[in-house]
């Protein structure tokens, strides 16, 4: 039985999503803006009603034809970018809020709240007010407040997006410990590959209101099949047609030779390679290496000690290459310039599509 | 937000702007100073304790408190509903209920008289049942609620709209029912705007003149509130009128101070 099962349509948002989550699994929903990730969360949380189909939690329909369990009866915790602590209550009263709303006596609720605050490292803030704590502390307290209700499911909508980069790693590891580490079922919306890799067991890739692919994080990231996942992982993805056991032909006519990760068959296939394995040449390379692509430079941007060059093939598909700053200056690499990108066949992974 | 340490004065503005600005300040303050200069300060206690003054003060206090309570009882729910509604119907209702705020009070009084007066649309059937509202203390309260309640509605609705529904959403996901959320989250967070909206409503009700005199008349101890008494006395007994006016000025100043304090308090709490 699935802990969460979404098979629902929301016409106004162009959403038609199918997703099943096994108990104790954390699923990261990834995809471009507007893909419908947050809508899926709202369908599960009850903030959004489907036009058709059903949403089930623990085998019971919570939204469907003539059924809509209201948000407050679903026992599903929500954590979003904003911690939304209640300003008129103390931190302890905030953490006890869910229990008090369920009719638990004040003393008992506050005792549980204190334990939850201790567990997120904010125990000493119990008497403070919401406007007296920092952004990172507020998000920790929001986590304590949500988990104090013993939710059967946790929905995380970019919980780290509004945090300072110096604070986010600590909150990420707190979430990892309290959500994934304690075997809770959760849905996570994120734009960050690190979040997906560290917090989730499975990945569901969404685009244009549909779930395109779902599966274990490692599988999907090792073989990214959509440009979005490729961007998420940071590898180059080129789509083409298999012309042999170890080669594909791109729409531009270029041939890309690589190592098949799966038997290619004869149909659509994808080549994937890391920007770091791409070399840049300003003249057509002699000795005809097996993979060389002629591109127009469209962007040069610093990435730490390196520079990432982005080039466009004649059909508009993009390839990135990482090189040293010195090399990019010496070679006079500026947008608009034509260059050849060379990548060794051994560095290219080929997947059937 | 922290207040700037050195007070600014017209920062970055052309200097000539100070001339019309000073003119506006003088125009709005000199008449009040004029009253202060003319008030027979030593006789104020005696002037305020004449039977007609005491009647007017007591009637105004009673009716304004009742009018403010009625506005809270029915205007606050209206503000909550409007703030959480969109669409044409909500827009139409919002427009209709704010009209009395900008309507000339005498027109409001006439509308109430035509509707609730002895031969009015609703007044006639009520009259058959033996209920007469026109020219009674009830009419005074009705006139005050009619002109003053929109101030509470707009103040609270505006505050609720700008604060968004995030806190209510968070409360619901924590398991709080809509009633529990209203009681423990929405209303406490709105307390500052409810307080300042109530103060504005009370002040507007206290100053009500046109609608009251049109709909309720001017009967000592029954419908003759402070503004009506002041109008009556302005030539007969100017000193008494000035003493009563002083009361209204003090209440007005208190209202401004209270609403200002609450709005500063809100700002301080929102921005750490």
From TrEMBL, chain A:
PROSITE patterns found in the cross-reference section: ABC_TRANSPORTER_1, ABC_TRANSPORTER_2, MOP
Keywords attached to this entry: ATP-binding, Molybdenum, Nucleotide-binding, Transport
GO MF terms held by the record: ATP binding; ATP hydrolysis activity
Matches recorded under SMART domains: AAA
Domain of life, per lineage: Bacteria
PANTHER family: SPERMIDINE/PUTRESCINE IMPORT ATP-BINDING PROTEIN POTA, SPERMIDINE_PUTRESCINE IMPORT ATP-BINDING PROTEIN POTA
Protein name: ABC transporter ATP-binding protein
Source organism per UniProt: Propioniciclava sinopodophylli
Automatic annotation (TrEMBL), chain B:
Residue ranges occupied by any ABC transmembrane type-1 domain in the UniProt entry: 57-259
Keyword Mitochondrion recorded: no
Gene Ontology molecular function terms on file: molybdate ion transmembrane transporter activity
Ranges that cross the membrane: 16-37, 57-83, 95-116, 128-153, 240-262
Subcellular location(s) of the protein: Cell membrane
Alphabetized UniProt keyword annotations: Cell membrane, Membrane, Molybdenum, Transmembrane, Transmembrane helix, Transport
Database matches in InterPro entries: MetI-like, MetI-like_sf, ModB_ABC, NifC_ABC_porter
Membrane topology: Multi-pass membrane protein
NCBIfam families the UniProt entry points to: Mo_ABC_porter (TIGR01581), modB_ABC (TIGR02141)
Function field: Part of the binding-protein-dependent transport system for molybdenum; probably responsible for the translocation of the substrate across the membrane.
Entry similarity comment: Belongs to the binding-protein-dependent transport system permease family. CysTW subfamily.
Listed name of the protein: Molybdenum transport system permease
Gene source species: Propioniciclava sinopodophylli
């Amino acid at each position: 039985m699935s802990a969460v099962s979404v098979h629902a349509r929301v016409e106004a948002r162009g959403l038609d999503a199918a997703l099943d989550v096994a108990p104790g699994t954390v699923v990261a929903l990834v995809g471009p803006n507007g893909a419908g990730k947050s809508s899926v969360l709202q369908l599960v949380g009850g903030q959004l009603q489907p036009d058709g189909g059903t949403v089930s939690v623990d085998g019971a329909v919570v939204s469907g034809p003539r059924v809509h369990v209201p948000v407050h009866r679903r026992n599903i915790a929500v954590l979003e970018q904003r911690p939304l602590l209640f300003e008129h209550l103390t931190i302890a009263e905030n953490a006890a809020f869910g229990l008090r709303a369920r009719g638990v006596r004040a003393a008992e609720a506050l005792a549980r709240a204190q334990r939850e605050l201790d567990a997120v490292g904010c125990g000493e803030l119990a008497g403070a007010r919401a406007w007296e704590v920092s952004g990172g502390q507020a998000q920790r307290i929001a986590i304590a407040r949500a988990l104090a209700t013993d939710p059967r499911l946790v929905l995380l909508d970019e919980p780290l997006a509004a945090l300072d980069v110096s604070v986010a790693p600590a909150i990420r590891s707190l979430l990892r410990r309290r959500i994934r580490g304690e075997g809770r079922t959760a849905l996570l919306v994120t734009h960050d590959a690190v979040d997906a890799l560290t917090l989730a067991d499975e990945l569901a890739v969404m685009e244009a209101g549909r779930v395109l692919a779902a599966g274990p994080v490692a599988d999907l990231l090792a073989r990214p099949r959509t440009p979005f996942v490729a961007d998420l992982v940071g590898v180059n993805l080129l789509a083409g047609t298999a012309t042999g056991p170890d080669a594909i032909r791109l729409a531009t006519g270029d041939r890309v030779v690589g190592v098949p990760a799966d038997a290619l068959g004869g149909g659509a296939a994808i080549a994937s390679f890391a920007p770091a394995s791409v070399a840049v040449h300003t003249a057509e390379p002699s000795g005809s290496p097996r993979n060389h692509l002629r591109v127009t430079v469209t962007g040069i941007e610093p990435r730490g000690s390196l520079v990432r060059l982005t080039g466009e093939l004649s059909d508009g598909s993009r390839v990135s290459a990482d090189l040293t700053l010195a090399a990019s200056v010496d070679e006079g690499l500026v947008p608009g310039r034509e260059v050849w990108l060379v990548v060794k066949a051994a560095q290219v992974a080929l997947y059937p599509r | 937000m922290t207040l700037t340490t050195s007070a600014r004065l017209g920062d970055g503005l052309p200097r000539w702007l100070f001339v019309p600005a000073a003119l506006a300040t003088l125009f709005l303050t000199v008449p009040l100073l004029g009253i202060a200069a003319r008030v027979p300060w030593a006789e104020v206690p005696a002037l305020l304790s004449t039977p007609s003054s005491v009647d007017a003060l007591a009637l105004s206090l009673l009716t304004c408190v009742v009018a403010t309570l009625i506005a809270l009882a029915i205007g606050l729910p209206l503000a909550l509903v409007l703030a959480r509604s969109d669409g044409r119907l909500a827009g139409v209702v919002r427009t209709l209920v704010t009209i009395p705020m900008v309507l000339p009070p005498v027109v409001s009084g006439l509308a109430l008289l035509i509707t609730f007066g002895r031969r009015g649309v609703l007044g006639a059937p009520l009259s058959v049942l033996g209920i007469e509202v026109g020219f009674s203390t009830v009419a005074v309260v009705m006139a005050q609620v009619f002109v003053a309640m929109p101030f509470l509605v707009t103040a609270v609705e505006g505050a609720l709209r700008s604060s968004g529904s995030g806190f209510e959403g968070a409360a619901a996901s924590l398991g709080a029912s809509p009633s529990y959320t209203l009681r423990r989250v929405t209303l406490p967070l709105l307390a500052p705007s409810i307080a300042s909206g109530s103060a504005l409503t009370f002040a507007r009700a206290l100053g009500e003149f046109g609608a009251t005199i049109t709909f309720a008349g001017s009967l000592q101890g029954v419908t003759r509130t402070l503004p009506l008494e002041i109008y009556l006395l302005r030539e007969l007994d100017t000193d008494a009128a000035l003493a009563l006016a002083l009361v209204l000025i003090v209440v007005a100043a208190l209202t401004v101070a209270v609403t200002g304090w609450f709005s500063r308090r809100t700002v301080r709490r929102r921005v750490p």
